[in-house]
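lol ok so funny story. i was supposed to be doing the assay writeup but got distracted and ended up predicting the structure for this chain instead. priorities right. anyway since i did it might as well share w the group, maybe its usefull for someone
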Amino acid sequence: MKLGRSRGGDVLVVELFAFLHDSQRLNEYSDRLHGSRAAEFAVSLNGRFFDLQTEQLDKLCYAMEHHSGGVVHTCATIQSCWDGDRLDLGRVGIKPHKDYLSVEAAKMIASATRMSKGLSSG
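and the output, tada:
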């Protein structure tokens, strides 16, 4: 959310992405179609549990369908979704690669790494 807000992205889309993008996973590691299923699920919820405009829903669905692809995007909203997801990869033991993050997110990781090294060496 912080990333989306600081970039001027659509915070509602980023929030819904955070809740829904992995909601249709069959397992944690090898479910390549979970993003597409999550996008379909979001479409089914729109108008019932939230009300996104067409452009917002398109961004949400695109972000969910492609969030595991290891690419970056010029849209602040979509990239904020992906950065938020990638910054959370440590939960499954994966360190996100800086090439798949925005500059801001890569700086956040570098700063956190420096801080942890400083704290652990003291």
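The chain has one domain: 2-121. The mean pLDDT is 85.
back to the writeup now i swear
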